[in-house]
Amino acid sequence: MTTIKTQDYEKINKxxxxxxxxxxxxxxxxxxxxxxxxxFKTDQETKTKANLIATFxxxxxxxxxxxxxxxxxxxxxAYILKxxxxxxxxxxxxxxxxxxxxxxxxSAGVLALDLAIKQFQFDKMCLFSTYAIPKITNALNxxxxxxxxxxxxxxxxxxxxxxxKIKDSLEIELSRKPSAQEIAxxxxxxxxxxxQLLLFDSCISLQGNDNYNxxxxxxxxxxxxxxxxxxxxxxxxxxxxNNVLKEILYESFTQSRLTYREKTVLIERYGLExxxxxxxxxxxxxxxxxxxxxxxxxxxxxxxxxSRRKNAPLxxxxxx
Length: 320
Hints:
Blueprint: H1 8-18, H2 26-42, H3 49-69, H4 73-82, H5 84-92, H6 102-119, H7 128-148, H8 154-174, H9 180-187, H10 191-198, H11 217-220, H12 224-227, H13 236-255, H14 260-269, H15 280-287, H16 291-307, H17 312-318
Helix pairs in contact: 1-3, 2-3, 3-4, 5-6, 5-7, 6-7, 8-9, 9-10, 14-16, 15-16
């Protein structure tokens, strides 16, 4: 390469050092440098130092993401780890995220990075960090919603973090999912309190809070979409029962204080105004939201329905 100035190589080498954790071969960078040389010759804007380095980063990111999208799982893991600092940067730039621990932010942010890699649009001609930051921000907002939108005050949020940490630790220690009693014993809380807190970390229960002692939270919680079944798959009696359940659910949510978006998600997900059941992806496409966000809205809406005492008919129906 002769057209790029010698002093620019110092900056280029520093960028290469940043990516050294990915253990990419020398020929990988040689190819990127050839592409950079071509960009330097054909794109006048690239000839400023700032744009030269930005272009170099973009070319590296593009090639890495292309390899990951083709199935390189090891590279994907290493690339996500490299970008953990991006999550921390987003968290630290807004004081609202002080409510989240670093582990919580990273946990949510890693999912956002994974989504950004899958959906990355090469034709946008932008750095991966530029593309990923809005997704990370959205993921942190959703994580905050798990604590705030469900009515968690700071004291309850602290308990939630503690219980979740103990649950994860016990699962590793026991090599199985711990029971609610085991979590309660370690956390020095009642079984009822533990299950109420774990409600926000698993499927929503519409059955109340009885008989927790001999079951894990995951075994006990029942998801509505497993109860309202596709009509064509069942007998006439089962179809009638499903329709009754749908009518009760519809009446329950119309009486609850749900937002327009929450009502829309439930209507579309469970076919409450038609016979068509939409997937999370399909509802997300209608509302221009991610599958994860649709699931969060769905759980919030079901939890609001569950919390109303007037919804006893639904709870009784589910106890059959």
